[in-house]
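Practice problem: predict the structure.
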Amino acid sequence: MTHLKSLTLTVAPYQIERNPKLIRRQRLIERLEEQRKLAADPTFTVLVRRWIKDTEGVKQPFDRQKRIKPWWKADGAGSLILVLKNGLKTIEIEKGKPGIVVGPVGRLETVLATLIAATRAGELDGALEASSGASKGRGVPRRAKVA
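Answer:
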C-alpha cells in the first residue's frame, strides 16, 4: 500500500471532450500524407481491414486495397493544379479559388508539406469549417434521443 500512497488521486472526467476543429484538422493531415506518399509512389494504396462472413457464417478479417485518387491535375501548360478535398467537397482556401498552382511535378511534395504545416498551425480551419457545413449547425452528428 505504500506505492499507492505516493500517487495523487483525482476524480476522472466523465467523457473526454471531442473538439470537431481538431478532428477535421487531423483528417485533412492524414489525407495530405496519403497524397504525399502517392506523389512519391504512383502505385501507392492503403490496406483497409473489413470483416466478412465466410460460408459457415463466421466473420473473418479481410484486407483489401483502397485506391487513393490524386488531388492534382495537369493543365494545358504542363504545370500541376492541386485541389484540396474534404470528403466529396472541394475546400476553397480563398472564395472562388479552390485550385493551388503547383508548377512542375518536382514541387508537388514541397507544396503538400507546406499545406500539412499550415493545417497543423490552424490556418485552414475556416476553409475546413466552410466545406464541412459545420458553420450551419451540421458539424458533429448527435445521437437521437430514445424515448
